[in-house]
Amino acid sequence: MPEPQVGYYVHHHGAGHGVRAAHIAQALRVPVTLIGSRLPDDLPVGVRSMPLPGDTAPGMRVERLDALHYAPLAVDGLRERMALLARWFVTHWPCVLVVDVSVEVALFARLCGVPVVYVRQHGLRDDPAHRLAYESASALLAPYPQVMEAGDTPQWLRDKTGYSGWLSRFAGTPRTAPRKAQVLIITGQGGTGLSVGLIEAMARRCPGWQFRVAGSLPAGDPGPNLQWLGHLKDPRVEMHQAEVVVGSASDSLVGEAASLGCRFIAVAEDRPFDEQRLQARRLNELGVAIGLEQGWPAAPQWPALFEAARTLDPSRWQGWADANAASRAARLIESTLAAFSTP
Question: Which residues contact 1 (CB under 8 A, 6 or more apart)?
């Protein structure tokens, strides 16, 4: 029998899906191919890649369908990517496909007779399309700790889900003492409601705090307590040194903040299915971070928010993003693969 394989479909929006995929791929003990139209530049040694064409085109027709999220008509790239996927399934069987995330790709794999491990995300995902993806998957993977599960999640969904804990490239890093009254504001690549003007207003409103800003925003004017750092490939040192870290309520940044034992203010960005809003709400409920469901507050609210963040106990959540999270995710994928590849 040919060697069992793992395919891993990576969604193109933001950097978090690709970072997570590379982290899990490194922990897999079977051959793995990352598949997508926007894959990480630096893949772990031995991890293969299969680039896909884009799924948009001028003149395409997008229709609203209850059971599908995105199935446009008249897109050459969409036909080509599905043909590439089907060919990969044929030439790499026995295989399993991890889907992070796409309802349509998951259903296509199932219709090709390929078992799917579907990666769950936070948010209001009780629509017919998500339910179909969850029901048709052979296993579900939640890349967060079980305690972060929403209280209204159905029991059948919980029973089908394996929880890895948050995945973080910084897991296992010892905590260090932060610099008093230092703030790190960090933005990602998925889009933000934060503006340069708001950051400058926050710095003026909080003269006793030193602000350092990392990420994708263009640099504004420097100030006596404001420094623009630009994009940081590895923000670990800056996150360690900050008494308070401020950023989005995304899985990737939340996981990294937890793994480093940061006092974190998680701001919900506008994302489909209220993904970050509900994550921020749950963090607030658990008292491990300051979760802001309604986005970025005006400058006058930030002095009180920083003082509230100072009261957080980072030790309460650091273990929720431990060094074994990627291995737990990998073992779930491998067990699903074994169920279909054992003679």
Answer: 94, 341, 343
Regarding whether 141 and 14 lie in a shared domain, the answer is yes
- 308-315: long-range contacts at Cβ-Cβ below 8 A with a sequence spacing of 24 or more? 309/244, 309/263, 309/264, 309/265, 310/243, 310/244, 310/263, 312/263, 312/264, 312/287, 312/288, 314/175, 314/261, 314/262, 314/263, 315/261
Look at residues 194, 119, 200 and name the one whose alpha carbon lies nearest to residue 164.
Answer: 119
pTM for the full predicted model: 0.95
Q: 87-94 long-range CB contacts below 8 Å, 24 or more apart?
A: 88/7, 88/33, 88/35, 88/50, 89/7, 89/113, 89/114, 92/2, 92/5, 92/7, 92/33, 93/2, 93/5, 94/1, 94/2, 94/4, 94/5, 94/337, 94/340, 94/341
Q: Are 215 and 187 in contact (CB under 8 A)?
A: yes
**What is the extent of the structural domain holding 49?**
5-165+323-341
Q: What is the mean pLDDT of each run of 10 residues along the chain (343 residues)?
A: 94 87 96 96 93 96 96 97 98 98 98 98 96 98 97 96 96 93 93 96 98 95 96 95 97 96 97 96 97 98 98 96 96 97 75
Map residue 79 onto helix, strand or coil.
helix
**Residue 49 DSSP class:** E
Residue 37 near residue 17 (C-beta atoms within 8 A)? no
Using alpha carbons, list the distances in angstroms from residue 167 to 147, 156, 254, 321.
15, 24, 10, 6
Tell whether 145 and 188 lie within a shared domain: no
At residue 12, the pLDDT reads: 86
Q: Report DSSP letters for 251-304, one per residue.
A: HHHHHHHHHTT--EEEEPP--GGGHHHHHHHHHHHHTSSEEETT-PPPGGGHHH
203 plus 102 within the same structural domain: no
